Agmatinase
Amino acid sequence: MMKHPGFLGFPDKLPGGAEPRIVLFGAPYGSYYLGTDSSGYAQAATEIRAASAEDADLVDNWDFDLDGPLFAGHAACCVDIGDLPTRIQDNARNRALIEAKTREILAAAATPVMIGGDDSVPIPFFAGFSECGPIWILQIDAHIDWRDEIHGERFGYSSPMRRASEMAHVAGIVQVGIRSVGSARSSELEAAKRYGSRIVTAREVHARGIEAAIRHIPEGARIVITLDCDGLDPSVMPGVVARTPGGLSYMLVIDLIEAASRRGRIAGFDLVELHTPSDIGGISALTAARILVNVIGRIVRQV
């Protein structure tokens, strides 16, 4: 692991040998496509940590998003263990590192929170839950990510939901914020529907609220949330490659996260596709940092 200033100043270990409830880590690289450059995502975790720095001394203050302090009056229970030593173009090794670390965190009865990286890194993250299923996946994204392969690569950033659908421990998938055009063709949409994916467009959420999405998840489910930054509207998340008008607001996203924690139990969370060269004034990193704060706060509040 690389040395780093932890998210919100969190240490890599809790004092006195206490076991953390939440373990945050970065995964800069996943499975790249031949001829593409994924290096623009590699600094996302670093930028998000930096964006959280000025709030590091405020974790005991009242957070109006959470209706209380981050740790709800209890001792801090989150650690940030830094970035995994992933390497560009080392696809199989990167996947193995991510899956192994996810399994290790879950085996210690903690909740893994991962910062990517492009949208290929959720595939091994999901795979790491195979001994902790069944899980439901709540995807927040502009795209359905159901391609079987691109340029012969089956584990790239256009395929995470297709690969997740093939995992025996994944009980169901809800895809929220879908809009505009991407790599999906009619055949990918048909494949997603055959599987039984619940696709909830951004227009549906804007018209009917988050209930349009959360109603598809069974009560009491273990939920892994995967958030592609382009699921949010570019007015609050400009640091993406595929800026697409009509996305979810920050408030809708944190309401979805809260609703998931009440509907069932957040078992894991990942945030991907923050393209730091495309950010404007650090807005995207700040928004991502606030989303992570809400994730941590909601996990802490789960009974």
Observations:
- The beta strands are 22-27, 78-83, 111-116, 135-140, 170-178, 198-201, 222-228, 265-272.
- The mean pLDDT is 96.
- The chain is about 30% helix and 15% strand.
